Amino acid sequence: MSKPRIATCSLAGCFGCHMSVLDIDERLLELVDVVEFDKSPITDIKKFDGRCRIGLIEGGCANEENVAVLRAFRRHCDILVSLGDCATMGGIPALRNLVPIDECFREAYIDGPSTHNPAKIIPRDVELPLLLDKVRPAHEIVRIDYLLPGCPPSADAIWAAVTALLSDKPIDLPYQLIKYD
Amino acid sequence: MASEDINRVVGEIGLRHGRERWRLMDIVRDVQERLGAVGPEAVDAIAGWLGIARVEVEGVVGFYSFLSSGQRGRVVIRLCDDVIDRMAGYDAVRAAFEGALGVKVGETTPDGEFTLERTACIGMCDQAPAALVNDVVVTNLSSDKARVIVRMLRDQKDPSKLVHRFGDGNNSHPLVRSMVENNLRKAGPIVFSGQTRGEAIRKALAISPAEVIRAIKTSRLRGRGGAGFPTGMKWEFARAAAGDRKFVICNADEGEPGTFKDRVLLTELPDRVFAGLTIAAYAVGAAEGIVYLRAEYAYLRRFLEQVLEKRRADGLLGRSVCGKPGFDFDIRIQMGAGAYICGEETALINSCEGLRGEPRNRPPFPAQRGYLGCPTVVNNVETLACVTRILEAGPATFCERGTHQSSGTKLLSISGDCTLPGVYEVDMGITLREVLELCGGEDAAAVQVGGPSREMVGPAEFHRTIDYDDLATGGAVLVFGPDRNIVEIVSAFMEFFVHESCGFCTPCRVGTVLLKEKLDRVIAGRGEPKDLEDMLELAETIKQTSRCGLGQASPNPVLMTLRSFRPVYDALVKPDPHGYRRGFDLQASLREAERVAGRGSQQHQEGVP
Predict the structure, then answer these.
(1) CATH says B185-399 is which class?
(2) Which of A47, A68, A133 sits opposite B605 (nearest CB)?
């Protein structure tokens, strides 16, 4: 029987959650013994090769591309886990939800104190995905099966969650692993 | 207006009300009326006059919907926007006003003459659609009447000229002169009976305060605002509380949408209400009373002032009431400024003190520490009218009506899809079916008993009874016929709570908004079965964690109907085959970005393999 597959993605996140995935250290070797990585920044595989057991979602949805990727993950994965605070709540990127998009652009490309843009050009290339009106947590876009809080969730928490999901056991996260104060 | 003038106006108004901080509401209200706004300069002047921080003044101006920092028109037209008014044609009336004035709701005409606004229930559901034109109530509106009103206001400038025909009873009193109708359909043996002015007070003064409280306890009278706290017990607490200075307050902030029975009581039987307040004062040992009158009923104010004046002249108020040495008592009217939450007694007390109408933490209860920190009793208008009858005719007459737990009669304000909307005095314990037969609403598909904060009942439950054990109500009975859309009604109720939340605590301020968003998605056909579960969970959280009664009741429209009208909701939701959230509308969320970028989305939305 082939090994179960795992996919990961970073949407509107900072890759910190992925760093935390790497932080499982030598257990990474244990992991690759029992799973195969599909589409993921870790493998740099861009397209899904097959059905995945688990999809780990870092980041919320800030633009149309994020939505498309997240929806693809929903279609290809049995279980989706929102990894970290951006995926579960929108996180830091969602701070812009209080500001209209054109104001965001003006501040980022024209008015910002460290901006040098004498032509005052706001990039609008067709290659650039359009922003959503608001940054949204993943579960507002697709059904999410589990939420793993933390900024980022610790490597131990990720390890505990993933190994439990792979062995069909209930996820048991001791208080210490999800306590952040 | 030049700032010297603003200072002068504030100075004049200040002199009238004094420099005590708790008169802030009166000062701000008068400034608003004179200047059409309480702008930054007026705020400075008021803060200077009272010796308080300007943020305290701004806080009050920002809180109440009848006050504004921005300039309003000379004539403010407030359209009553509640469910019943919507059913009666609110939208057509609004469109007619907007057309005739050339502005939208929330705007002021460029000449500064008119401001058009919407407001929560103004207590005229039995003659909807209705509106306030400054203080003048106009009822039974239609689109043509709306246009006539605007024309007349342009010609004559005087809102009081809008009233051609007076309503029945005291609505035609020279100091009321209103087109409002009482629509008193059924006068019962308790509230609407007994005529002898002064009899109840004399009987009360002939016995000791403790005996008065015992009589009220014997009658088993409970609060008529809807919460049903035993009145005698409340008085006893206040009587026992330490302190020389005590207060009694009549809660005439009848704001629960669909409730208007206090309006009729205040119009027809103010003497009996004031008598009840005087008896309460005697029982608890208070020398000062306040009637907190909602801003929507300002048209009754001069009339009520005159009734009070007459009572003073007749010795029913003032020093040694009815010749009883040592019992001095007087009443002042405190006007509200448009905030539903002020019907909650601790919010009402804050409002009387010139603060934002935010509820207080309890304990201490008002009976221990209320107005100005003194023991205070707050009673509903109808409760006080009952008190008068109990002292007049004896507790036995009262409690032979109704049930054991809910003695006496109850005033109902019935409106909506029925042939005879209006006020009914019925025995407690009456079944909903009997109520519907009385008012001609037998074919109702749903009845909201107690207003948005209480319960929506379907035909299968029309055997249920109106009393404190089953359907407790402050009096509102909203009848909905078979053609009405239940979930739309629920959404309108939620809109009401979103607007009326005082904003102090998060579960209510944020929760009501989230709940309404979810509900509206479901109504729009973008809901999934899970959304209904989420709504239940969110509603429970709001209920359990909000700070005051308003917050705790705010999810009730959703909670109650999810329980009793579940099939209506179930028919609106379906799961998504791919596991996408149906509530997320990609096109809508890209609209702003497309406008900013000046191009449409280039992505194939489902194209990522």
Answers:
(1) alpha beta
(2) A68
